[in-house]
Design goal:
alpha/beta; Aspartate Aminotransferase, domain 1; 2 domains; Aspartate Aminotransferase, domain 2; 7-stranded mixed sheet; 14 strands; 3-stranded antiparallel sheet
């Protein structure tokens, strides 16, 4: 028996849910129900064409229209003007860990990186394979339970750019202040888990990227915002699929793109516009996280949050009970009660409630009520 076959046979089996459950997964994460229902139709027949989105040519006139509409919706929600390029790039955010320095970390130069958690650590490792990296903040002594305070992540002279991850999914922390770049440099932001959960501040930035599978769409693709002046400053010769200017010139299709993913991102951005825009999303994020944090505070010490409160993420709330056995029991009981995806990341353990834009406030309320009930029964 092959390893894959063995894993399939030994995989835990859950009864089929009778309906939609509250999905607290960190990603791939919940998508708006309105979008999913539209996609059901579009998979079979896109816009009355008699052909589904998965079947349309990426060079056909109907996809030309779809690409224009999806791109325009993304740029509107981002608040990005004509001096920015918005790119649909395959490979997920992890590809950007190498692609960014390959394009903008020059030979003999260096870039600044703040290490605030697992994904920032991985970005640093990949950048070091390209060139010299200066660490402006090291969160390991704090077990990544906090981000830098103002002025703590100081840029170094001559750094090409300063990379930061604004919301740390694994540890549930968020920067309380935007870092600064060295004179002549610019900020590069990994916004994978908080993009469009708040207004996107592009000031002092040259580059923003976000994996789609948390707040934008399906896994396997990334949205990149890049200042147009930087497209002319790439520092080394690279294959076409690693060049941002090639994606820009080719309208994000230097090869056959993820046509389905582009459509989903467009629909999600239009959904955001219909539901209060990014300011509306920010308000709901605060309401959801506040509801869960209140249950932690009212537990009499039964539940303990991982992140320091002043830099607590409004998107990912990490907490744990008295011991690992309790945490595992909570995750299992929650799943049986229609709340899935609550197990913490394998590197941190505990419990993690990821509440992206598509999570209804009712999901946070259901989780908080269950937390109170569970603590009463097990305290």
């Amino acid at each position: 028996m092959s390893t894959v076959e063995s894993l399939r046979r030994n995989a835990p089996v859950r009864p089929m849910a009778s309906g939609r459950v509250f999905n607290f997964s960190a990603g791939p994460a919940a998508l708006p129900l309105d979008v999913l229902q539209q996609l059901q139709q579009d998979l079979v027949d896109l816009w009355g064409s008699g052909i589904g989105i998965l079947e349309h040519s990426h060079r056909g006139p109907l996809f030309d229209r779809l690409l224009v509409e999806s791109h325009a919706a993304f740029m509107r929600v981002a608040g990005a003007g004509s001096d920015w390029a918005g790119l649909f790039i395959p490979g997920g955010a992890t590809l950007q860990f190498g692609m960014l320095p390959l394009n903008f970390l020059p030979e003999g130069g260096h870039a600044d990186y703040a290490d605030t958690g697992l994904w920032a650590t991985k970005a640093i490792a990949d950048a070091k394979m390209v060139g010299k990296v200066n660490i402006t903040f090291d969160g390991t002594p704090f077990a990544f339970n906090r981000t830098p305070r103002e002025g703590e992540a100081k840029p170094s002279a001559g750094a090409a750019y300063h990379h930061w991850c604004s919301n740390n999914t694994v540890d549930g922390t968020k920067w309380s202040v935007t870092p600064t770049a060295a004179p002549g440099g610019w900020l590069a932001r990994d916004a994978s888990s908080d993009i469009f959960a708040e207004p996107l501040d592009l000031k002092d930035h040259g580059f923003v990227y976000a994996a789609a599978q948390k707040n934008l769409g399906p896994s396997g693709m990334t949205m990149v915002l890049i200042r147009r002046d930087l497209l002319e400053k790439q520092c080394r010769r690279l294959p076409s699929m690693l060049r941002y200017d090639e994606f820009d010139k080719g309208e994000s299709r230097p090869n056959t793109p993820n046509t389905f993913g582009i459509h989903v991102v467009g629909l999600v951005c239009q959904w955001i516009e219909r539901n209060g825009g990014v300011k509306g999303m920010q308000k709901l994020a605060g309401e959801r996280s506040g509801t869960v944090l209140k249950a932690i505070d009212e537990s009499g010490g039964f539940w303990k949050a991982h992140a320091e409160r002043w830099c607590q993420s409004p998107i990912n709330v990490l907490f744990r009970g008295p011991n690992e056995k309790i945490d595992a029991a909570f995750v299992a009981e929650a799943a049986a009660n229609g709340m899935d995806g609550l197990a913490g990341h394998r590197s941190t353990g505990g419990i993690r409630a990821s509440m992206y834009n598509a999570m209804p406030v009712e999901g946070a309320k259901a989780l908080a009520d269950f937390m109170r009930d569970f603590a009463r029964r097990n305290g």
